[in-house]
Structure formats: C-alpha cells, structure tokens
Design a protein that fits this description.
- By secondary structure, the chain is α+β, with helices and mostly antiparallel strands.
- Helix content is about 25%, strand content about 30%.
C-alpha cells in the first residue's frame, strides 16, 4: 500500500480510481435520483463547479473533506445544517 485512500469510483476523465480528499458529498433537493447521481459527480468537481451545478439544479449541498491537515465539513450551503454523528468511545 502507498498510504493513500482510493475510492471505488472511477474518474471518467482518466479511467482510474481517484485518491480522494473529499470523502462525502451530501445533497438535498426534490429529486433523490438526481441528487444521488450528482453526489457521485461532486466527488470529481472543484468548488466552483459544484456551486454552479447546485445552483442550476436547485440543490443544497455539503462537502466533507479529509486530509493530513484538515478533517471536517469544508462547505455547507446556507440553511443546511448537518449534525455530526455521535461516536461511542
């Protein structure tokens, strides 16, 4: 292992598994099927692309990122509140 976390998602532009810092994309809108597809696509988009698509498709969204220097919600649409899951220690 090279120390990287690889996803089961394949980048359609490169044809290879991607090393992710974005671990989760949560979308909220009227069309659950479209939201599911967009959540996958959001894993490959940059911040500007995500915001543009979310506005066009009328979705709110949140992005959870994880790296050596940051772990947490890096973006959350206004009015969208996600409560962190409690963990048992």
């Amino acid at each position: 292992s090279d120390g990287h976390m690889y996803s089961h998602l394949i980048n359609p532009k490169t044809g290879s598994a991607r090393v992710f810092t974005t671990r989760e994309a949560v979308l909220l809108g009227r069309d659950g099927s479209k939201g599911d597809a967009l959540a996958t696509a959001f894993m490959f988009m940059n911040d500007e692309e995500r915001l543009s698509v979310a506005n066009k498709e009328d979705f709110k969204y949140a992005i959870y990122d994880y790296s050596a220097t940051f772990k947490g919600w890096s973006y959350m649409s206004e009015g969208l509140n996600i409560i962190p899951k409690k963990t048992n220690k």
